Amino acid sequence: FVRNESFYYCSGITWSFVSSSKLGVRYSPPGFIFDVAGSSLFPEEEYIPYITAFLCSSLAYRFMQYLNPTLNFQVGNIACLPLIVEERIRPQVDQLAQENIQIAQEDWDDFETSWNFVQHPFLKHRSSARTIVGAFAAWHAHADQRFRKMQQNEEQLNHLFINLYGLQEELTPEVPDDEITLRRADEVRDAKSFLSYFIGCLMGRYSLDVPGLTYAGGNWGAQSYQTFQPVADGIVVLTDDRYFDQDIMGRLEEFLVAVYGRESLDENLRWLADRVDRRAEDDAATRLRRYFLQEFFKDHCKVYSKRPIYWLFDSGPDKGFRALVYLHRYTPDTVARVRLEYLQPLQVRVAEELRQWEARLAAGTLSRAERRVVESRIDVLLARQAECVRYDQVLADLANQRIALDLDDGVKVNYAKLQSALAVVK
């Protein structure tokens, strides 16, 4: 049965019931409910910052170790903590606590899984940088400054509480770096999140002209996209070569030019390719194509906890056809469009490429090494061709059903409706 329903949607303080290390305490803004895994307490509103600061202090954690040395932080243990509310220091404690809450909220909002995400850090914090290198440096400096500010605030709070309880000889106020939970700048993670943001702009989920979430269902507003135009139908084909005029790499180049200018395009492509582990023999475009074709969806599923919002239409292990479809732009006609406007035209282009390779082979002018390269490519194309023939029938069967989705059912239920045409979520 429902417990403490009167506290639903109230602001309060929550903590993790199970933790492998410290007591994980967070301010909980109004609008949410709770359960035992995220146990909560609801003091009077004016005391929330003070009590949050106390529970986050090294002092409270030391008390918890005495009360319950296990990894479970139970409601009864929290209730037994010896809280002293000292009005003399409360204004200072409240200010520091509110600063830290704001810093933590800002940190969370810098990543697209936040409801309040506005813009990728490479744009939001780039200052006047005209390259991704410069934008990353500005973001790095901002994130590091934020990190040190929170660390300084936590140490001040520890100092205040240690003095209040007279435990100067037992405890020190220092907070090690590994106990600050803010995310610091990371080239690999941030490059991948930037490529994800690009996909979001390409799908129309985000816009370079409108802050925050631009489209997640409802009425489509073309006027929201002036600087960079999204795809017309929420479908993006992923290929290892340029089979279409406006393919994934062409659009990425267009996006980078719109954000940073044409002069730095090559430098920015190289930086992104190097961050996703470019091989020595690859140029930047080749590596980035392979990332989108083979790795992006896996990273996307990890970020969205196996509930992807960009669905991967996947013909199979030979990678004959792969395309991303934005869940919120899906319609009962989407599968037919994927088949008729993308899969079948790609089959024509692959057949043309196959004839060219076969002609080179038949000419008899290749060296032994060149012949091996050509034969290898022919084998790849033949396998993809056969796979696409089978996949065409899969899409035809689904297209005839004109399957509708109900977003209220959630990603997992809806994804299963099209599972025969989609990649397995791992």
Number of helical regions = 13
Mean pLDDT: 93
**CA-atom Rg in angstroms:** 27 Å
Runs in which pLDDT lies below 50 for 5 or more consecutive residues are none
Please tell me what the overall shape is.
elongated
- Helical coverage, percent range: 40-55%
Main pleated-sheet profile: 3 strands, antiparallel
Topology record:
Blueprint: E1 12-16, E2 25-28, E3 38-41, H1 48-56, H2 58-67, H3 75-79, H4 90-109, H5 121-124, H6 132-164, H7 187-203, E4 235-238, H8 248-260, H9 265-275, H10 284-303, E5 310-314, E6 322-326, H11 334-363, H12 368-401, H13 411-417
Antiparallel strand pairs: 1-2, 1-3, 4-6, 5-6
Helix pairs in contact: 1-4, 4-6, 9-10, 11-12
Please explain how this structure is put together.
The chain is mainly α and 426 residues long. Helices cover 50% and strands 6% of the residues. It has a three-stranded antiparallel beta sheet with strand order 2-1-3, with helices on one face. A three-stranded antiparallel beta sheet has the order 4-6-5, with helices on both faces. A hairpin with an 8-residue loop joins strand 1 and strand 2. The mean pLDDT is 93.
Short description:
With 426 residues, the protein is mainly alpha-helical. It is built from 13 helices and six strands.
List keywords for this structure.
three-stranded antiparallel sheet; 426 residues; mainly alpha; 6 strands
